[in-house]
Amino acid sequence: MNIPNIPAHAPSPGTAPTLADPDTPFAVVDVQRTLRNIERLSARADRLGVALRPHVKTAKSLDVARLLHDGTPCPVTVSTLAEAETFAEGGYTDITYAVGIDPHKLPRVFALLRRGVTLRVLLDSTEQAASVADASCRAGLPLPAQIEIDCDGHRGGLRPDAPALTEIGRILHDAGCLDGVLTHAGESYFAHSAEDRRVAARNERDTAVAAAERLRAAGLPVTTVSVGSTPTAHAAEDLTGVTELRAGNYVFFDLVMAGIGVCHLQDLALSVVVTVIGHRPEHGWIITDGGWMAMSRDRGTAVQAQDQGYGLVTDLAGDLLPGLVMTAASQEHGTLTARDGAQLPDLPIGTRLRILPNHACATAAQHRGYHVIDGTLGTDTAPAVQAFWERVTGW
User: 79, 99, 171, 174: which has the fewest C-beta neighbours closer than 10 Å?
Assistant: First the structure.
């Protein structure tokens, strides 16, 4: 795929910009790793015979989204109405808003519907269902709604045997709003073995299908049976009864996903470039200008077999510096230390490094966009910047 050649900054005359040029800290995306990650899950969804509805909350970028489906808009999932509105402006007309609907937000939802966008909302209570039904009747425009199903005790949703399930389904159906059911195996992020992830994927599917069958048995039509998380999407072996698969983190991956075996470190497409700004040899510290404002406060690997602190450290070419970890963060300062008997490297002030994040979604949200590189081109020092892709919401 051709990458638009948008300079990230003004390079020196006669030279191409590299990761050694923009002011730090800044986010970097390796486009070839991203494409490889996208193809991996796309091929799996094809083999499983389900539609893939990527969650664009990870990248929040139209440029990244264009990589998902040969440059053309595809069905997507969002986590905010700002994302829905911006992706609608970008030509995306099939959107699922996968966070429980607040009735106060319904005017914005109907504004998108009137523009021809199919925007589905999510709910798990009779109160929400009644609000959607009433608003649809007043507007003369059915709002498609999905009932959130709880498959693993994580966050919201109804169990498939909950008494309220069919009551909610009836309220929505009578208003022409019932679209289907949706579940998310949030606990799969703690599935530390391949078998644990396969079990989570089976449970996710079985729970969603059971809820759909219960609604159908009550005479309520169910069009969509939606499942997905990045761990279960890569572990599912049979999605019979499911119509679509959702995932978002897989586009970039991160240390949490690597820590549970969903991907390898070589698959991580997002990193943050920082600069060494100080040393505290008495503590064994190297100080950088990338704190939690650059990396986020996410410490998702702390519960894994190998705690990666706030991130692993590489040189600008992407090669890991053995034993060097970002172990502490204040707002604008990051602290790097050596572990497992490694020697603290001699990194002079001004040295640029890349930090691999725990949670790609959280780290991406800290930046206004991504400097894009092609890691397959090879370099001994700093990769060339191919483009700058802006985030589309939050700035």
Answer: 174
Phi, psi of 148 (to 5 degrees): -75, 130
Mean pLDDT of 213-233: 98
| Exposed/middle/buried for residue 10 (C-beta within 10 Å: 0-12, 13-18, 19+) | exposed
Over its C-alpha atoms, the chain yields an Rg (Å, rounded) of 22
Q: How far is CA 86 from the centre of its chain?
A: 17
Per-residue H/E/C for 17-48: CECCCCCCCEEEEEHHHHHHHHHHHHHHHHHH
CA 41 to chain centre: 13
Lowest mean pLDDT among 14-18, 58-62, 209-213: 14-18
Q: Give the amino acid at 392.
A: V
Query: How far is residue 164's CA from residue 244's CA, in Å, rounded to a whole number?
Result: 24
Tell me how many helices (H) and strands (E) the chain has.
Answer: 11, 17
Q: With H, G, I as helix, E, B as strand and everything else as coil, classify residue 216.
A: helix
- In the 8-state DSSP scheme, what is residue 138? H
Question: For position 14, what pLDDT does the model report?
Answer: 55
- Residue 267's CB is within 10 A of a number of other CB atoms, namely 19
E-state strands within the chain: 26-30, 51-54, 76-78, 94-100, 118-123, 145-149, 178-183, 224-227, 244-247, 270-280, 285-288, 311-314, 320-329, 334-338, 352-356, 369-373, 387-390
Chain position carrying tokens 């040393």 = 279
Cα–Cα distances in angstroms (integers) from residue 162 to residues 124, 166, 210, 346, in the given order: 11, 8, 11, 60
The SS3 of residue 363 is helix
Digit-coded pLDDT (tens) for 264-313: 999 999 999 999 999 999 999 999 999 999 999 999 999 999 999 999 99
d(C-alpha 15, C-alpha 31), whole Å: 21
Please state the pTM of the whole predicted model. Answer: 0.94
What are the distances in angstroms from CA 120 to CA 84, 106, 277? Answer: 10, 11, 48
| Strands laid side by side in the 145-149 sheet | 51-54, 244-247, 224-227, 178-183, 145-149, 118-123, 94-100, 76-78
